[in-house]
Structures are given as C-alpha cells and as structure tokens.
Amino acid sequence: MGYTISQAAERTGLTAHTLRFYDKQGLLPFVDRTPAGNRDFKESDFEWLGVIACLKNSGMPVKQIRQYIEWGMEGDDTLKQRLAVFKNHRNAVLEKIAELQGYMSKIDQKIWYYKTAIAHGTTAVHAETDCVFTEAP
C-alpha cells in the first residue's frame, strides 16, 4: 500500500486539489489506482511530482509538462527529447531571471530614492542636488 492523495499532498506541499488537477491534465499517468479507484501514490511517484512542481513553478505550460511525462513513460528512446526540454526550459528561466533582475534594479533605485528623500525630509533633494543612484541599498 502506498500513499493516499491527502498523504501525498502533505508530503509534497501541494494540495489535494492540485494533485487532482494534475491528474485530470494527464500529468500523473504513473500513479496507480486502488481496486476502489483511489489514487495510490508510491515512493517513486514523488520524484515525478517534484519535477512536475519544479517545471510548473518555473513557468512551463502544462501541455509541455505533459509531453515531457509522456516521453518519460516511453523510456530511453526519448532521452534526447527530454534533455532538449530541460535545455530549452533552462534558457526560458534564465531569460525570466534577467527580466526580474531588471525589475529589481528599478525597485532598488526607488528604495534609494525614498530613503534619500526621507533623510532630507523632501523629494526636492533629488532636484536640488547631484543625488545620483550608485548602489543598491
């Protein structure tokens, strides 16, 4: 006997609702069912769930995750396709990180702006002096 959906949810930090959604989307073909029809998660399923959560949380669409899982279920004949999935997704994540770093730079600039204004009691300090943003706070 394996884990119930509630136990799997608790162990992974996902909700039972999320696990049911993943199942309906075809992301859990590896999960067995009990004779009563309940999902019966086994130890090896948690590695799959971890990968699914990683891909989903890092922005991969469900359709692409499903394709990756289908290839994984096919076995070694799809190793190159699965590697390509991760290489492409890595590039997409790197692009997102660069985008977020740009946003962080703007946020840091605004933090500096308001700290400087507060220290001088006015935002006019930025117009009256040579206040220039030079570093993150």
TrEMBL record:
All residue ranges annotated as the HTH merR-type domain in the record? 1-71
Q: Which SMART domains match?
A: HTH_MERR (SM00422)
Database matches in Pfam families: MerR_1
Any idea which UniProt keywords this protein has? DNA-binding
Q: Which InterPro entries does UniProt cross-reference here? A: DNA-bd_dom_put_sf, MerR-type_HTH_dom, MerR_fam
Top-rank taxon, per record:
Bacteria
Matching PANTHER family: REDOX-CYCLING DRUG-SENSING TRANSCRIPTIONAL ACTIVATOR SOXR (PTHR30204), TRANSCRIPTIONAL REGULATOR, MERR FAMILY (PTHR30204:SF82)
Protein name in the entry: MerR family transcriptional regulator
**What is the source species?**
Paenibacillus artemisiicola
Origin organism lineage: Bacteria, Bacillati, Bacillota, Bacilli, Bacillales
